[in-house]
């Protein structure tokens, strides 16, 4: 994480110097070698700084998908029919398939079935 933050500062510096995205990425590769971020990441950050972004840190993310309430909602749907697809559950509960998959695999399957003990 610290390495990518350093590289974002370097990209911001290159943008201020008027370097284009290709020149910036080449400089990053030279400076950071194997720890260099990808060309696409470099390009995205270059574009963001060129468009006026000042902050180098990531935007905050809200991790509300795996709340106890959502785990219980998924569990209740699965109790009604364990053969339901991840997509169907996500659509039914108005959640992302990524969130439902995470709940099913990490909270329900990895728990050893404790959510389904009464069956």
Order of helices and strands: HHHHHH
CATH architecture of the largest domain: Orthogonal Bundle
Structural class: mainly alpha
| Quaternary organisation | single chain
- Work out the strand percent: under 5%
Q: What is the class of the largest domain in the CATH system?
A: Mainly Alpha
- How many separate domains? 2
Largest sheet geometry: none
Helix percent reads 55-70%
CATH topology of the largest domain: Arc Repressor Mutant, subunit A
Number of helices: 6
Strand segment tally: 0
Unreliable stretches: none
Computed over alpha carbons, the radius of gyration is 22 Å
Apparent shape: elongated
The first-to-last residue Cα distance is: 44 Å
InterPro entries: Mos1_HTH (IPR041426), Transposase-MT_Hybrid (IPR052709)
Pfam families: HTH_48
Protein name: GVQW3 protein
Domain Mos1 transposase HTH: 8-52
What does the model show?
It is a single chain. It is elongated, with a radius of gyration of 22 Å. The N and C termini lie far apart (44 Å). The chain folds into two domains: 1-51, Arc Repressor Mutant, subunit A (Orthogonal Bundle); 68-109, Arc Repressor Mutant, subunit A (Orthogonal Bundle), CATH 1.10.10. It is mainly alpha-helical and 119 residues long. The protein has helices at residues 2-16, 21-32, 39-50, 68-80, 86-93, 97-109. The mean pLDDT is 88. Helix 1 crosses helix 3 (39-50), helix 4 (68-80) crosses helix 6 and helix 5 (86-93) crosses helix 6.
